[in-house]
Structure formats: structure tokens, C-alpha cells
């Protein structure tokens, strides 16, 4: 039985000599990484590799040793200096070189390059160009690993990442949930150009103790020491001891990037770094075991020849086709047949549509889980998830107030095969952790050439008009809709709230599902169980012949009220509810405009640079000759949301503003 590791007190037996075969395997791995990185450096210097390159020369022992005890199904997250990690986890040099060259046969078909190599089938969830970004993703993968079996996740990061907030959020959540993850720091003494001593007032050992986690320091240049110690750590984590922080003390021979002249390092430091050579240290261990110099030379030459040949084959591979530039932005969506609510369906509150969708999804899909701040025991700050924790105590989970960790939980969980639904309490708070949406969730399916699953739903809410002020009232959907790879939906009725959420959870893409809190108590016909609303398809909320009014979320209901009042004057308004902001339903909108010859777009967000501008531009570009009047946009004023009720009312679009815009578009072009 494995004994749980005590905080800051990992006690391991003295390092025993390795078996010859195992040491030869480790040495070959170190030589493979060394050859790969030397070749990469030369090829980059010669212009054969575009972009940015960060090599791990001097750090080969930590990568090879750390991955030695891992299964194929175990997972790693890496960083911008990730070549060694990928090779050590089982990726083939040819696929990696092809990726560096930007070839179609590359590991991710030329969509990632040096900093973004990945292969989820080998448990490589991706190298990452954002410092520390892989840490919360590793936590999400570790949650999935524990849910589905006994796999372990190793999160590689450099000493510079310890200063990032995501390090603390990830380690805190992993410690709180006792997740099977090893936080493996390769401390090479420099965070880009800054010496570690100048960037950290506390050691990593002290930080680990602060989270109650065991800490282990190892000599990163000694591949056998890393492999032996990590084998023991990984075994403990696999059997339930909880997360561990490991710090491999190593050295970076080259600069932060290839081309960095390292003017910030003195000659003595560079000379010392070169003296701790993982290849030489491994050769010394082999000699201690009685392995001849001839055998050592043969192993080294075999690795060199294999990697060199892989580079030559990769260089001759074809380039990707220009026509495929937009491939993999989104995964194909499942076909959905919409069931409209029955005419006599009982009305339910909007909030009930959301809660029922969550409950039914958890009942129907064993891979789904809901996590976020106060969503479990408290049922959410607006009581949306009330009662769900009692039904699904293992899959409705409270998290700390850590938005980056919450979103990373979703990203990593999705990559590891679950269907996460994570809640960000207010849409405004997306900014606290934007990287996990902007650079991770939105791009990983694309950057892995479709290999990464990203079936993740982000629930959040907005809604002005309640004096919540500038930091709790923003309508930021256009900010998210601008990011390729993200899907953004905003329901206006209880039935659509249910159907869009069920479709979002089913969808293989990251979906941001935005609720309007001012609608929570509004009643409308209930959806049948299992109802789905097709993502990307608008609905005609009211048919008309004179003017097309396009809107979404709460403003749809406001537009309908205005339309009914204008009907008394003989003005027949067609109201189109977008439902999905990105991808938006161009066909339905264009067809409506071609019928009515007029267009008004209404939304709660500020007018400038908004959804309305996008729709008007598209209509003018594709249906200009159908227009009989100038298109109009209605939205909030270009300022943050005011607090005082009179100011907020003046800032938000009102019925009079919508009516004025409708009447204006009835005027012919002058």
C-alpha cells in the first residue's frame, strides 16, 4: 500500500544503481533530445525553420527522466521550450521536424510550430506559448484522469511561471481536490532575461508548503536521478497521494530564444552551465555500470543518425495547401432537429429552462460535469443550479474564486474526454481569465489539427438595468464572437434557454452560453425534454412585411413589445431572434431583409464596433439593392454602465429608441 506523501517531507531511499538496459534506454533518450535540439538550432540559424524557436539544450535529463515512468495514457502539458518533453513522451522526431518546417506532415499539420506541438493520442496535450497556461489545463486533465481511471498528469513549467497567477490558482485547486498531478518545474535559473534570484522573494519549496503540498528537489542534469525519483512520485500520485511539486535544478545553455545573445549572463555563469552536461552525466553512469566506451558511442551514434535522417525526410515533405488555411477552426457540429414548444405547453421561468437543461444533461451524459464558484452547495449566486448537487454530488462541484483555474478545468477536462460545463459568475469576470478562452479553448482544436477534443461549455450571465454598475453589467458578446473557434449563444426564452444549453453541452466546440439575469423570472412555454436548438440558426419571433428587426437575448422581448404597438398603426415588423451570435445566421437575416427591404439591429451592448455593425455591413454588402431605407442600429451609449437608475436608463436602449429607429428606416434614402 502506498503511503501518502507528507507536505515538504518526501522521504525517498538512497539512489540505487540502475539496471544496464534501463540506463541505456535513458541515455539514448537524452542523446535523441540533444541531437534534435542541436539540429533545430542550426536549421533555425540557416533559415530553414520560420517563427520563434526555444531549445532545451542543457535540460535533456529532466525531460527524459520525468517522462520515463509515464504510460501512454498519462498526460503532460508543456511550455514554449517543449521539444524534449514531446520526444520523451513518445512523439516521433520526423513529425516534430516536419512541424518546425511547417510541413503538411507535421505533428499538427503546420498549425502549431515549435511552441505548439501536441498529440493528445500520446497524452501530449500541447506545448504552450503562454507562460504558465498549461498549469490549469493540467488540473482539468487530472480531474478527468481521476474520474475515468488512474492516469497521472505531469505539468511542465519553468521557474518564471511561478510568478503567474495561474500557477497559484492551479496548484490551489489541485491541492484542494487532491488531484493526480505532478507540478514539474524545470528551474534553469532564468525567466527569459531575468535571473530567478531577481524574480522570486520565496522559494518553490516555501510556496509548495504554503499549499500543503509535498516538495521534492532533484538534480535535473542526472537523468537517472530524475527517472528514479519521478517513478516513485508518480506511483504515489497514481495511487491517491495527491499532487506533488517537483523542482528539477537544471541549466539553459542557449538564450531564451534562438538568436538571444544572452548579454545578461556573465562568462562564468555560461561556463558553469555547460559543465553540467546531462549527456556526459549519463555516460558516466553507464561507465560505472561497466558499459564500454564502444557501446556508449554506438548508442549515441544510433540516436544521432536516427534523428538526422528524420530531419532530412521531414524537410522533403510537402507544404500544406493554402486552401486548408481555415481548416479545423471548429469541429463539425451534430445535426439537430428542432422541436418547437407545444402551443399548450405550460409556461416556465427562464431560470427553470436552464436548471432543467443542466439536470437533464447530467442525467443523460455521464461525461458531463458542472463546476464553478458556489454552484454546488449554494446553488449559484442566482440559484440557477439549486438542487443539482444533491442529485449529482460527484459532478456538481464548487471551486475557489479562481476564474483561470475554472476555465482551465474546462479546457483540460475537455481535452481529456469529459464534457465540462464551467460557470463564470458574471460575464464581466471573463477578463480575469481571458487567456484560457482566447488562447487555449478557442485555438487548441485548430492548433492540434483537430486532434484535441474541446467539448466545453462556459455558462455566464449579464444584464443591465439593475444598478449593478460598470463591472457587473457589461454585454461583452462581441468581444468573444470576434475570436475564431469560440461559439457564442444568447437565448431569450425558456425553451431556447433549455434547447441551446443542451446543444452547447453536446457540441464538440467551446461554447460560451450567456444568460440574461433580468430574464430569470420571465415565463414562456416550456421545452419538451431532450429539446435541442440548432446552434447557428435564428428564429422568426414575429413575422412581418415592412421592417426586419434583428435582436437577441432580452432585447428580443423589448422589440416584440414595440412591434405589437406599431402594428396598431399598420407598421408590420418582423422580429428575428439571432439566438447564436457566432456563428450568426446570415441566411435567415438576409432572407428577411429581402422580404421587408428594411433593417434595424437592436442589442443591449454598446453600439460602436458591435454585432449590429457586423450585421449591417453584411446586409449592405450582400443585399444592398433590396434595401429601401437606411439600416439602423440601436444599442447602449459608448460608456461604461452607470450606477444611478436615471443614468442607467438613459444609457440603455429603450422602447422609444427602438421605435425611432424603425420609423427612420421607413424613410427612403435621401
UniProtKB/TrEMBL annotation:
Entry keyword annotation includes DNA damage: no
Assigned EC number: 2.3.1.61
Protein name: dihydrolipoyllysine-residue succinyltransferase
Lineage: Bacteria, Bacillati, Actinomycetota, Actinomycetes, Micrococcales
Keywords in alphabetical order: Oxidoreductase, Thiamine pyrophosphate, Tricarboxylic acid cycle
Alphabetized InterPro entries for the sequence: DH_E1, THDP-binding, Transketo_C/PFOR_II, Transketolase-like_Pyr-bd, Transketolase_C
Reactions catalysed: N(6)-[(R)-lipoyl]-L-lysyl-[protein] + 2-oxoglutarate + H(+) = N(6)-[(R)-S(8)-succinyldihydrolipoyl]-L-lysyl-[protein] + CO2
Superkingdom of origin: Bacteria
Top-level class of the enzyme under EC nomenclature: transferase
Transketolase-like pyrimidine-binding domain: residues covered: 348-522
Species of provenance: Herbiconiux daphne
Keyword Oxidoreductase: yes
Amino acid at each position: 500500500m502506498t503511503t501518502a506523501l507528507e507536505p515538504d517531507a518526501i522521504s525517498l531511499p538512497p539512489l540505487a544503481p540502475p539496471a544496464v538496459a534501463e540506463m541505456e534506454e535513458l541515455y539514448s533518450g537524452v542523446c535523441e533530445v540533444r541531437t534534435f535540439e542541436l539540429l533545430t538550432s542550426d536549421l533555425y540559424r540557416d533559415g530553414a525553420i520560420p517563427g520563434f524557436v526555444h531549445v532545451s539544450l542543457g535540460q535533456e535529463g529532466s525531460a527524459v527522466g520525468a517522462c520515463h515512468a509515464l504510460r501512454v495514457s498519462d498526460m503532460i502539458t508543456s511550455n514554449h521550450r517543449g521539444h524534449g518533453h514531446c520526444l520523451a513522451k513518445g512523439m516521433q522526431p520526423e513529425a516534430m521536424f516536419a512541424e518546425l518546417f511547417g510541413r503538411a506532415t507535421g505533428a499538427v499539420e503546420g498549425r502549431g510550430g515549435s511552441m505548439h506541438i501536441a498529440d493528445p493520442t500520446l497524452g501530449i496535450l500541447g506545448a504552450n506559448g503562454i507562460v504558465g497556461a498549461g498549469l490549469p489545463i493540467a488540473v482539468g486533465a487530472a480531474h478527468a484522469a481521476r474520474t475515468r481511471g488512474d492516469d497521472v498528469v505531469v505539468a511542465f513549467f519553468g521557474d518564471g511561471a511561478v510568478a503567474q497567477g495561474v500557477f497559484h490558482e492551479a496548484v490551489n485547486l489541485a491541492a484542494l481536490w487532491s488531484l493526480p498531478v505532478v507540478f514539474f518545474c524545470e528551474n534553469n535559473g532564468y525567466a527569459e532575461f531575468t535571473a530567478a534570484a531577481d524574480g522570486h522573494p520565496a522559494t518553490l519549496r516555501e510556496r509548495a508548503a504554503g499549499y500543503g503540498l509535498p516538495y521534492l528537489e532533484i538534480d535535473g542534469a542526472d537523468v537517472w536521478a530524475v527517472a528514479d525519483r519521478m517513478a516513485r512520485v508518480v506511483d504515489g500520485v497514481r495511487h491517491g497521494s495527491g499532487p506533488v511539486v517537483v523542482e528539477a535544478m537544471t541549466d539553459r545553455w542557449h538564450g531564451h530564444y534562438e538568436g538571444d545573445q544572452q548579454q545578461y549572463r556573465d562568462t562564468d555563469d555560461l561556463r558553469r552551465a555547460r559543465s553540467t552536461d546531462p549527456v556526459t552525466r549519463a555516460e558516466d553512469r553507464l561507465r560505472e555500470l561497466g558499459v564500454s566506451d564502444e557501446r556508449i558511442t554506438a548508442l549515441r551514434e544510433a540516436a544521432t543518425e536516427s534523428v538526422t535522417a528524420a530531419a532530412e525526410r521531414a524537410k522533403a515533405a510537402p507544404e500544406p495547401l493554402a486552401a486548408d488555411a481555415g481548416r479545423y477552426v471548429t469541429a463539425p457540429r451534430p445535426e439537430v432537429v428542432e422541436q418547437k414548444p407545444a402551443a399548450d405547453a405550460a409556461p416556465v421561468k427562464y431560470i427553470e429552462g436552464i436548471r432543467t437543461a443542466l439536470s437533464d444533461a447530467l442525467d443523460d451524459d455521464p461525461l458531463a460535469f458542472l463546476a464553478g464558484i458556489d454552484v454546488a452547495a449554494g446553488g449559484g449566486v442566482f440559484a440557477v443550479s439549486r438542487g443539482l448537487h444533491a442529485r449529482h454530488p460527484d459532478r456538481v462541484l464548487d471551486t475557489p474564486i479562481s476564474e483561470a483555474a475554472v476555465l482551465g478545468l474546462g479546457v483540460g477536462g475537455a481535452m481529456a474526454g469529459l464534457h465540462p460545463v464551467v460557470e463564470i459568475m458574471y460575464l464581466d469576470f471573463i477578463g480575469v481569465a481571458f487567456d484560457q478562452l482566447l488562447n487555449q479553448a478557442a485555438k487548441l482544436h485548430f492548433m492540434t489539427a483537430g486532434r484535441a477534443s474541446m467539448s466545453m461549455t462556459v455558462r455566464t450571465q449579464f444584464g443591465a438595468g439593475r444598478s449593478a454598475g460598470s463591472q457587473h453589467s457589461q454585454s461583452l458578446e462581441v468581444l468573444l464572437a470576434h475570436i475564431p473557434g469560440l461559439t457564442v449563444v444568447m437565448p431569450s426564452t425558456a425553451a431556447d434557454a433549455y434547447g441551446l444549453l443542451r446543444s452547447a453541452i453536446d457540441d464538440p466546440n467551446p461554447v460560451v452560453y450567456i444568460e440574461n439575469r433580468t430574464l430569470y423570472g420571465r415565463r414562456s412555454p416550456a421545452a419538451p425534454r431532450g429539446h435541442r436548438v440548432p446552434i447557428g440558426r435564428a428564429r422568426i419571433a414575429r413575422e412581418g412585411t415592412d421592417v426586419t428587426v434583428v435582436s437577441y437575448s432580452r432585447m428580443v422581448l423589448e422589440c416584440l413589445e414595440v412591434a405589437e404597438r406599431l402594428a396598431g398603426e399598420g407598421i408590420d415588423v418582423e422580429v428575428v431572434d439571432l439566438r447564436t451570435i457566432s456563428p450568426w445566421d446570415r441566411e435567415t437575416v438576409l432572407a428577411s431583409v429581402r422580404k421587408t427591404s428594411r433593417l434595424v439591429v437592436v442589442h443591449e451592448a454598446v453600439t460602436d464596433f458591435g454585432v449590429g455593425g457586423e450585421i449591417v455591413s453584411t446586409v449592405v454588402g450582400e443585399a444592398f439593392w433590396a434595401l429601401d431605407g437606411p439600416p439602423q442600429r440601436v444599442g447602449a451609449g459608448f460608456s461604461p454602465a452607470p450606477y444611478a437608475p436615471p443614468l442607467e436608463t438613459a444609457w440603455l436602449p429603450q422602447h422609444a429608441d427602438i421605435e425611432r429607429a424603425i420609423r427612420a428606416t421607413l424613410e427612403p434614402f435621401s
